[in-house]
Amino acid sequence: MAWVSLYKRILPSPPAIELAATQGKKLFEEALQNGTVEGFFKLHSSCQTQSEFAFCGLASLSMVFNALAIEPPRLHKGAWRWWDDSMFECWVPLEKVMGKGLPFKKAVSVARCAGGNVEAFYSNKSSIDDFRKCVMSCTSNDKSHMITSYHRPTLSQTGRGHYSPIGGYHAGRDMVLILDVARFKYPSHWIPLTLLWKAMNTIDGTTRGFMIISKLPKTPSLLNIWSCRYESWLDVANYLMDDVPVNLQSSNVTNVQEVLSLIVTSFPTSFAEIIKWIELRGHTGPEIKVLKQVRETELFKHMIMVDRSQIWREVQTIFLLSLPPQTWSGIKDENLLQEIYSLFSLDDLPHLLREEVLNLRGELDRLKICQKEKYNNLSD
Fold this sequence. Notes:
Elements: E1 17-18, H1 22-33, H2 40-45, H3 56-67, H4 94-100, H5 104-113, E2 116-122, H6 128-139, E3 144-151, E4 161-170, E5 175-178, E6 189-192, H7 193-200, E7 209-215, H8 230-250, H9 256-264, H10 271-281, H11 285-295, H12 298-302, H13 310-321, H14 334-343, H15 351-379
Antiparallel strand pairs: 1-6, 2-7, 3-4, 3-7, 4-5, 5-6
Pfam families: Phytochelatin (PF05023), Phytochelatin_C (PF09328)
Organism: Papaver atlanticum
GO molecular function, one term: metal ion binding
């Protein structure tokens, strides 16, 4: 029996046009002149090949995250910061993806939890006109990139469901450039937008669509949740947002010192890893200003009773200021409650510190959402 090579496949053309072919190059040149391949260059510099047959979604996310310079939560291979398939294991079990693939809804969840600013569009709740407008917008800049989830057989290609980023658009021919992450199989190619929409709108047990990913707005960054071990931040978020309100409600605290003692003496042991990470990375000008402003707050002056290093007390103070007002509702003494509200008020904080606190408050909320999404990923 003759051995059949599985090295690449012949790209069905039509409907596809290979980017490297003469006609594909001409389409690219025309699209370049029209300004609708602006995102191509950063994506191309970050091109990846999926490492497993079912990892097309993770490879697409890796490619887009690297193109957007979204910093990964840890070093890759212990040496440098670079996204690859395996970096998403914090938010989705890789063995489950390997066995069942990654449904579009979960891919959106993983992208958000990993630190991307994500807009998701489901084909059954969108339209081809919406899709075309989004394609034109994404391909006209390099600040946002699109990932599509589509049905390969609709494009006359082998396989079933697949993900890949979009690298360009040719308005005259109404064609999109797919940067296929299964590079061992098919090269980058142009495909009619109407046909891709049909492939995205094909339901065979799963709902498909497209997502637009951009980088989250930069804020004061003393505490960057996505640059330290995810589990450490999650331990602290769970403690502050779940345990602290319950502990306060079941206690009989009578003054501010008892409230603070109850909270700060029970911080998770993983908090030490966060402190170590902050100390190792050093501080820039804005971060030094934030820390100086922390030391000037009334709350920090109360934290002096904590037998810890200054940086430990500074970071704990920022965490405590980030807690939402409802945290304290369990305090039974009305006078003490009003004193706590006054002490933890953000109204009189300096602008830079207030921005840092609001940023952290949003990140803690997002951590809890991501934890829920991760649990759903495990249980679905």
